[in-house]
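Encode chain A's predicted structure.
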Amino acid sequence: MSKSPDAFRTISEVADWLGVQAHVLRFWESRFTQVKPVKRAGGRRYYRPNDMRLLGGIKKLLHEDGITIKGVQRILREQGVAYVASLSQGLEDEAKPAATDDNVVVPFTTKPAPQEQISLDLPEAPVPAAPAPPQPVLDKLDEAPLLGGIATQAWNRTEFDDQLLRQIAPVARDLRALLNRIENRSAG
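Encoded structure for chain A:
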């Protein structure tokens, strides 16, 4: 036997009606001061039909329209509670659960075997006879840094092929690991 449209609803009834968890309603209460359920002894919340319509409009704006909490708060301030409540589903309508296809088969593939280390057969960078004076900080991004080997090749290219990217990947991975170790030492 269903309740009268004017009857108060518990938090679980409203949560079921909206298709959300009860903790979401409590959170919305903390963010939207316009939501004021009646609280009885023991802290039980009872929602009036107007509270339910307001919550339905808030849910539509947040979940369906993708508006942020601050955005919904602004809409409530500028356009009012009646406007947001008018966006709600009907009180007799139940929230429709998201359509799921239980017959979806996800293929399972094994992890590929690790590839062999790619050899970097690059010409050696010339070694300066005397230590070079300190280089000024580059203020233009289009100037190539004074690096040898694969970094210079990568810097000078505008198009990258798969072979060069495969050569760069292990170097980049090793550099990232080294940077992570340095950051961990300085943080700890």
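The longest strand covers residues 45-47.
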